[in-house]
Amino acid sequence: MKNVAAKIASTGNERILLTERGASFGYNTLVSDMRALPIMAQTGYPVVFDATHSVQQPGGLGTASGGDRRFAPVLARAALAVGVAAVFMETHQDPDHAPSDGPNMVALRDMPRVLAMLAEADAVGKRWGGDMAAAG
Question: pLDDT per residue over 124-135, tens digit each?
Fold first, then answer.
């Protein structure tokens, strides 16, 4: 991502956010490597963790992508403990009937509880230092 960020910055754009979304590992699973977060932070740009994309299971339903939304808050909490700048999460009032990515989405009714939990994890990450650039 260092080279990607440098290429963007070479155009004069310094408003750069780097995002970890998981990488395909086969077996219809995306995997997010928490080590990547402090490594990306070494660029000096804020790192965003896409929690709902990270739990996607491409082709997991046979004819469509699946996912396991239960793990989106878990991975988000881990990313915040490491010190990411932000978390991205998709939500829907009825994820099982959403037009796309429903299996990954956190139900809207669950978001207040999830956000409260994530705020606590963010505070812990910041209390521990949260300086991901120094960790890498």
Answer: 888 876 556 555
